[in-house]
Amino acid sequence: MKYSLVEPMGGSRLSTTDEHLKAVSSKEWNWHPDLPVAVSPLFSWPPQPVATLRWFATNWLPMTEYLIYALMAWATWALLVPPLEQMQTLSWGWVLQLWARNLILMIIFAQGLHQWLYGWKKQEDDYKFDRRGLAKNARIFLWNDQYWDNFTYTLLSGVTFWTFYDVIVWMGYANGWAPMMTIESNPIWFFALFLLMPVFQSFHFYWLHRTLHIPWIYKRVHAVHHRSVSIAPWSGFSMHPIEHIGYMGLLLIFLAVPAHPIHFIFMGYWLALATATSHAGFENLVLGDKAHLKIGSFHHQLHHRYFECNYGNPEMPWDNWFGSYHDGSPEATERVRETKKRMHTQS
Question: Which domain of life is it from (predicted)?
Answer without folding.
Answer: Bacteria
